[in-house]
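[audit] Reproducing an earlier prediction to check determinism. Same input, same settings, fresh worker. If the tokens differ from the archived copy the diff job will pick it up downstream; this log only records the rerun itself.
[audit] input (347 residues):
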Amino acid sequence: MTAPPHTTPHRRATARLATLVAVLLTAFAAVFAGTAPADAVTPWQEADHNASTPDSPAMAYYRGSNVEAIRGQDNALWFNVDGGPFNRIGGVTYAAPAITVFRGELWLFQTGQNGDLWAQTLANPNEPNHRRWYWSSPIQFRTQNIGGSGSAVRNNLSPAIAASPDLLFIVAVGANERIYQATMGINRNFSPWSEVPGGARTESAAAAATSPDSRLTVLHRGTDNRIYRQGLYYRYWQWDNNWQQIRNTNTNAAPSIAYNGHENLMAVGWRDANSGQVLTCETLTYAAEATAPQGVPRGNNVASPSAPRLDSEPGGVGVTIRGGNFYDVGGHYFRNNVIYYIHNYYG
């Protein structure tokens, strides 16, 4: 904006000052309104900004849509489809949920108040109006005595679930901080719990993912804040029997893992213990860390108060985080406790 030629220098200066003030006021208004400046560009998308979670969100790709599940501020389960409005499912949980697809059904797991696990499936997936979707009655999977006399799964930690063609693997952390696994078959029969070999202990939720080479990979945060992995070759039910460290990791929260079919690699995500930044890397589907190449941790220019979640998508891997009231390097504002996601991050 420039002043007309006949305007005095004093009036031209005043006009420029007024313009500058207007621009600054607009920028400040954007900050206090919790929105990014108009020219801010980010690959991250914000889900329904009316939704809020105190924990890590979860996401799964199902029938051409991305379905997110969260623990709400009311400790109930909520879900949305493709970033739209969240709908209340109900229940009571003190941990983040887990969601995946098993044999064409969308499964949602939560940790109950007493440490038992509860699972539900989407009851009417053929309903085109996602807001009319509803979920089945919960199925209870008991965890009492999982680690000996009266112990159960820690009720503030999420279970990890991962699907193979015939089995749904469930991985959970006991009250004794040890890691346990069980399976659900195609007839919804549930196996006994058994400890994952290697004697690991963790104060955070475990993570799990399967790959087409008939392997289940389990991650946990060690007592030294490093991430460790172990694999199960489930075709012959053969564990690696030892935990191997994933190099260059340092976290004070649960790790996450997802298979990247686009590159036939495993993507690993975590929250850096020092900066809170969300970091990821890729590694092989089998545990050969002593000799296998591992990608350098990849920063996302975002931070989160909770652990990130990774999920497998047709074009690669998706990442979902909980916002933490900060700006990224591009000036985009991430609202506190609101859900953000990015698709095909590794693709």
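[audit] rerun output stored. Observation attached for the diff report: Residues 1-33 form one domain.
[audit] end
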